[in-house]
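# nightly structure sweep
# worker-07 picked up a monomer target from the shared queue
# config: single-sequence mode, recycle default, output format = structure tokens
# input follows
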Amino acid sequence: MNQVFIPRSVEWEAMPKTLGTHPLAVTIVHVTATAMGGASVATAIAAVAHLASGGSTEAKRAFALVLTVVGLYAVRMQLLGETLRLLERRRQVPRRWLLWRHRTLIAAAYGLMVGAGVLTKVRHAAFYVTLCFFAVAPSVAAAAILGALYGVSRGGMLLLNWAYQQQLGGKTLGTGITIELPRVRLLLAIAATTFPIWIATAYYF
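# output follows
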């Protein structure tokens, strides 16, 4: 998403002011929408997971164990630089949306899609570990908060780009920040291993 959205932010600066609000306001709308998108998906996953695991402690432990296996497999795939091809829309946000007249509407639409995660192509297998965290959250409300934080972590790139522009007179971060490097895969895999550790601590000790 950032490969499409960030480079276009400079073009927006050249548009007549009547076509939209201040760029910071548009950026805030986008970040807010990513939080909403992430919270919505997390809430749905948590609700289904709580129903599937049942009310008994044994059922919850068994469910957590299954998700731990999924999480470990996702870590392995992350190290290999592959994804699981599950729960994803194998496309990015449509570029034609950038032709809409109102920038605020574009920002909101992009934010909801990107924040949800599953509505765009998943590039990192570690994403599925995040979904596992949603599923075993203590409550649906807790999952919603986690989902919102996940969404903000994605939408925050645009806010970072806005701040970068203010410092460098309109220059953007560019698309180089999205290049996948082996060290990125390794760091994501290391971060993803917190899931089985957390599960073991929370459910079995």
